[in-house]
Amino acid sequence: MPLKYTALLLLLPCAVIAGQADNTPPPKPHPLKASTQRLIDVTPGAKQALSLAAEGDITPLTTAELEQLIIDAGGSLTKHGRNFADELEQTGATGQFSAEEIAQMVAQTAKGKVNAGHIRKILQQREAAQQPSLVGGRQSDDCPGLVYGAGKREICLPLAELSFADRVVAFTPGEKPSKVPFNNPAKALGEPDYRATQSPDFISIGCDGELLVQFTDNVLVDVAGPDLYIFEVGPFVEKTELAISQDGSSWLEVGVIEGARSDVDINGLVAAGEHYNYVRLRNAGKSCGGMHSGADIDAIAAVGAEIRLSLDSALLFDVGKYQLKPEAKTALDELLAKVAAYGPDIRVTVEGHTDSTGSDSDNKLLSEQRAMSVWQYLAPGLTLSAQQVSIKGYGESRPVASNDDEEGRALNRRVDLLIKPGSRLKR
């Protein structure tokens, strides 16, 4: 029950008692009042919180939520302030709070117990600092796309809304999953829309939880500066293990996102020109559990990104062939219009892909031939130099789906155009 309503309920029985005669037997304890009093007695800071809630000065939380916040922070309802700070340090949880915040906690808990109201104040201050501009992006003369976030966490994404993860491939909530509705992995897709801790606009991936997402209309590449940005939200910033993949099965371990660091540079880990379609996040924090268990993820963005336009090979070629079918003209003309709309200041990579049927060498050759056939059709309609274009055939080596069934194999037979925009993305 929210504290502000609890405070009001506490006042109601008092008025009834005041009007009774002296010889009237005392009424039986009101079960709701008795239950509320027990909660007050076992929850440090609850009386103060009730008073403040009654005055409307703070956002009310239930007693259970106050208790969970303290436990999530590595504390206990019966710990003294100094012990609380020591425990945080011993368990390696001090990264969740700054030195100043811990000092404040110690000072505020001098009376002997962890002050839930003070922890709440810290959470509110953090949330107020994080909340602005996390919903969607904004235009800026210094950014060719859109700017997201605010302050030190501000980031320019050249591809704007195309930058974000598009599909949940898998989600494992781990040993201690989050509670409904904060366990929905789809909340990590698309643009950031975090508003408040109580609003289910993000996914808490759980203790040892693992989230695997895919970029479908763009790819992650290495550029100068940050390449990947994780929009982690909420009052605590958890450690998160990060890995990337080209095919969703072979993973490159990038490392651990430490503390409040959200931007990741893959320079030195990947070869020039390589691109990645998958991101895996695995909670690595020691302090988790409760309503928001583990890392809280609102969005995942490829900062270093290229636009991907994909064509089903069945629309373009007969089985085993690389000559364009007559009916391919419609699809290729539509593709040409999309590419031309980005202007002449672009780089284009044409990639051919096959399923796993047949030999590796035959598939690689066929994929190269199909990529070349597509580019030969598009080239006359674009004013691009040879230095702006690359033709590649990957055969079966970069699937986007399983080759175990026909549906997956059909998705893997494709020609992709990767477009690196110029100075300003046309939207």
Descriptive overview:
This protein has 3 domains: 3-129, no CATH class; 161-303, Jelly Rolls, CATH 2.60.120.260; 308-420, OmpA-like domain (60s Ribosomal Protein L30, Chain: A). It starts with a helix and ends in a 7-residue tail after the last strand. β16 (347-353), α10 (360-378) and β17 form a beta-alpha-beta unit. A 6-stranded mixed sheet has the order 12-7-15-18-16-17. With 427 residues, it is of the alpha+beta class. The radius of gyration is 28 Å and the shape is elongated. It contains 11 helices and 18 strands.
Compact description:
This protein is an alpha+beta fold. It has helices at residues 3-18, 31-42, 46-55, 63-72, 81-90, 99-108, 116-130, 313-316, 328-340, 360-378, 406-412; strands at residues 138-140, 143-148, 155-157, 167-172, 203-204, 210-214, 218-221, 228-232, 240-245, 251-257, 263-264, 275-276, 278-283, 296-302, 305-312, 347-353, 389-393, 414-420.
